[in-house]
Amino acid sequence: MTEQDPLVIFTPSGKRGHVPRGTTVLDAARRLGVDLDSVCGGRGICSKCQVAPGIGHFSKHGLTVSEDALSPINAVEQRYDEKRGLKPGRRLGCQAQILSDVVLDIPPESQLHRQVVRKAAEARAVAMDPATRLFLVDVAAPDMHAPTGDLERLNAALAAQWGLPEARASLPVLARLQEVLRAGHWQVTVALHQPHTGGEAEILDLWPGFFEGPLYGLAIDLGSTTIAAHLTDLATGAVVASSGVMNPQIRFGEDLMSRVSYAMMNPGGAGEMTTAVHGALDELARAITQEAGIDPRTMVEAVLVCNPVMHHLALGIDPVELGQAPFALATSGAVEITAGALGIRSINPSGRAYVLPLIAGHVGADAAAVALSEAPEKSEDLVLIVDVGTNAEIILGDRTRVLACSSPTGPAFEGAQISSGQRAAPGAIERVRIDPATKEPRFRVIGCDLWSDEEGFEAALGKGGVTGICGSGIIEAVAEMRMAGLLDSAGLIGTAEQTGSARCVPEGRTQAYVLHDGSAAGGPVITVTQGDIRAIQLAKSALYAGARLLMDRMGVTRVDRVVLAGAFGAHISPLHAMVLGMIPDVPLDHVRSAGNAAGTGARIALCSRAARRLIEDNVRRIEKVETAVEPKFQEHFVAANALPHASDPFPELEKTVNLPEVSFNTAVSTRRRRR
Amino acid sequence: MTEQDPLVIFTPSGKRGHVPRGTTVLDAARRLGVDLDSVCGGRGICSKCQVAPGIGHFSKHGLTVSEDALSPINAVEQRYDEKRGLKPGRRLGCQAQILSDVVLDIPPESQLHRQVVRKAAEARAVAMDPATRLFLVDVAAPDMHAPTGDLERLNAALAAQWGLPEARASLPVLARLQEVLRAGHWQVTVALHQPHTGGEAEILDLWPGFFEGPLYGLAIDLGSTTIAAHLTDLATGAVVASSGVMNPQIRFGEDLMSRVSYAMMNPGGAGEMTTAVHGALDELARAITQEAGIDPRTMVEAVLVCNPVMHHLALGIDPVELGQAPFALATSGAVEITAGALGIRSINPSGRAYVLPLIAGHVGADAAAVALSEAPEKSEDLVLIVDVGTNAEIILGDRTRVLACSSPTGPAFEGAQISSGQRAAPGAIERVRIDPATKEPRFRVIGCDLWSDEEGFEAALGKGGVTGICGSGIIEAVAEMRMAGLLDSAGLIGTAEQTGSARCVPEGRTQAYVLHDGSAAGGPVITVTQGDIRAIQLAKSALYAGARLLMDRMGVTRVDRVVLAGAFGAHISPLHAMVLGMIPDVPLDHVRSAGNAAGTGARIALCSRAARRLIEDNVRRIEKVETAVEPKFQEHFVAANALPHASDPFPELEKTVNLPEVSFNTAVSTRRRRR
What we know:
Oligomer: homodimer
InterPro entries (chains A, B): 2Fe-2S_ferredoxin-like_sf (IPR036010), 2Fe-2S_ferredoxin-type (IPR001041), ATPase_NBD (IPR043129), Beta-grasp_dom_sf (IPR012675), Corrinoid_activation_enz (IPR052911), Raco-like_middle (IPR041414), Raco-like_middle_sf (IPR042259), RACo_C (IPR027980)
Pfam family, one (chains A, B): RACo_linker
CATH topology of the domain at 216-355 in chain A: Nucleotidyltransferase, domain 5
CATH class of the domain at 216-355 in chain A: Alpha Beta
Largest sheet of chain A: 6 strands, mixed
GO molecular function (chains A, B): iron-sulfur cluster binding
């Protein structure tokens, strides 16, 4: 290549170089290391290598491109355009030859490693690099004078035409190989799995001739209560369908520890729970492929994230050791198995499954997925990431160090163990506001677009009415009660006399606040009881104490920002969380919801082998803190009981709200003395 | 280490060096690269590291060894001696410390890589190097402050205590891991599989505390007719039990081609045959472990050798392509799978199976095993190796080049398609001698120790009597008939007048020779018919033509020696084979039977990972010749019809016997003219 050869400039990468006249665009891209996709390897079949040539003067590059910089549209392109349509201005990179200086734009959909899962806030992205991809190859026909197996000739073709390493094939694939090769007249499309570890590649499936795909993967977030899955296009990274089911293990125990107990008390109990979750995973896979209308055979990968108990049960490991100190995991590393080993049959028979690594006995693959999604190890400032479930997983870190722990918040934040509590479902109060002057509440209910004090609310509510209060609702209610002076900093509800609100009513020896009285219409009376307040206090103290423990270990008393992960994080109001002292004091606009970060992490691991390597490496480096054996935890826990806190200052919160300085202690102390 | 440190000399290796005073013998052996076994890693448990110290003057080494050259017998050795007995003069290498200059003999049973499968004739041996071995390790207990999985800590222990790479564990092994580690108080014995390819190691099984083993492997020779298996101790290489069953596929077709036809004609037919052979393999494994009285769990490896059709059917691959040119194999490389994938369940649940590579569409893994056992690529002189079955596999080679082909001999050599033919079983004539003067025969029958002309033969024969003639019997009969002048070089049997023997009787339009008339006792009349002679001629012509084709390709007209492999080779007489012209002319004492060379090859592959690498490499390098498409083959075939040959000289044979120059052509030509 000399200066006399045409100059080719690729955008957006800016990569440039001289190539001999007549070089195809695809070859030029390969020589210059430009990311241009191709499944058919330049046979003019797959159209993945489309480029948009520019014509005219490019002052930025100091280059004038003539109309005949590329060879004229040829018969292959013409046929493709007629049959499947080529966007105006587009050329097939494997057909168009470079005749003179040219600027070529590679549209995003033609980039093999196109970026997905863009996170605006972080200015980082994940490049497509799935473990399983399609490759079209022409295989040499058998030759009696050089007898080798069909598999060996297929491997030779993959090596020669794609530079791929030798791949093995399972016996069922091997059993189909000869027929498929002959049906395709020695041209086949191979779904090749190349492990992120650099281990042996495997031919997962093959199709006669050109198979366009796409291939799909399933990102599964296996929670104690619900199982969510996202069907993801492995070429584009796009989510094409999402689905969820209840975790059928609930019948063996609501929370994790009751399931561990079930396994300990019942011989074969762990196996029953494994069978149950396998059934649900398969059902989920079946439903989602059906919903998306895709052939299950094209779904070739699954990624699973979950907490350690769910992890062990899904893998058929008795979780008994996780029920007692030292909470020893059977394995903490990432697990690579067949999808079939997870009970998933509605998938390609050779489909693979990847389970993210666990961080510790209480900090699972779901937390690892959150860490993958939120990337604290890349953060310039100190970020606290909180994923609240029955246990809260807490991650604190920045570029220098990342710490993680789990804290036993219990299920109060999910609406359980709350007198009028319920899961987040239609009829549940999810938002609450209390007027500080009148102490009157207004609220919103899931499934209804209006606030309770808006016109037409009753009609919009429908006949189901108000049924209870969910996690985000109870948190807002408690925080609003505190802001309205119905609750003191110790968490005591005042009497009607003390608060001047008739909604404060006696409930046994304590007070309760009536949020909604639906009894006239035959519905429930929804109150926030003193017991509810205590449950929320216990949960929030555990969460805060966990965060403080990590901050101690990090040697800081403040964090720069807070990320709330999970469905819970998506629905909670940062202000209310901070009024309760759930999270350390930061400017309110430094609190962000990351949505389903665990699910996002699973999806990233599905799309990127580099991400799998990254999280495995990061998990090894994360410093684990076990709250159960840290003496300081109990101290932090007690101090965090007050609303927002007994001793830690909340200056940022105070800039926004003035919490009334009320105290209803006396009344209670009096009662206690009476006992 | 200085000259002042004690000098230690190990025999028989002769390795020597100075080690610091107080070094244990085991450590000294490791430092000096001496092959000393240990399963427990120096914990004084396994006793595999026993050595025999010499005392007195060793003039060869110029060394005088004092009685206190080693530390006195310690408590561990004393206890071991009391409990299990230590041979006189033996010390445990991990306990005895070197205090002054010493000569230490390592007995064969203490060598990890002890030699097995010694072949006196070849002066070569195979060193033990099985893929799966036992390792005792002490695993760190879990630590909440550094939470890693039990598997990760087990791997760390294997790395630290044995220098082993990271190993994976299947889910069933992972499910048992936690319980076993705790039962063994964090000491476990691991059965670790390290693939010969350098791929990822796998923990196949584990036992609490010290498990002595031994581990076993099963070498399987899967023939079209019979399946033979040898249970082999993976520590010593010794065969501890052998067993065989009929191949149940026989009911789908006697020979290979009829089974391929069955698969072609019957939908699901290949699957039926796969199921049948899987059942037989499992039954064989079950029977052999039961016979040997071992726990199937200790059987961790299987090696399979077989012809290509058996190979494909065993792996669940339809053999249809093997029934027609170009005889394309689905895969020709070695196959590594679970033993379960071959239907073998009476084995460790994680048990592995290794299938040797195939050489060509007609030259199978059994031929590869013969090549592994006979090692033509190491031969100084030119060796022709012949393995006769329904097809003959023929290998010709020396250090410079190895060629292989298969020749369609048909089943005549196995007694099939012979008028009185039968399998080699009690009642079958296996040896024949004909007096050249009287033309009277005498013979031996399988299951009887006497020749037919010896006193007491009838009584010794028992009531079953003579039932037929087997492969080796018919070959000897035909060769003896030729030597006695009953048969001319064209293969025609003379009439009673022409031969002067009343045993030559008309049979249709041709003659037959009455070998045995059992009709008086109600038994069969056993004759050698002209049809039988023709069948043997066709078979031997094919065999000889194949050998000649390889000789042509090699550019030679003579070979230096002939090796007859297989059960057939073990029973055939070299003289008789050469009279028939089955094999090229060589001095008779240069014809050797290799016994069950395929089975030996399977056993070598079971004991040695290096052997697996070697045969995979060799098979790639063997030059394959396809007889079906070689025009010269037909020419050689026709020329080889005569006994011994129409044109090739047999000078070595002529040194031993003078074949009568008779010709019975006229009679036959006359008859032919009459047709």
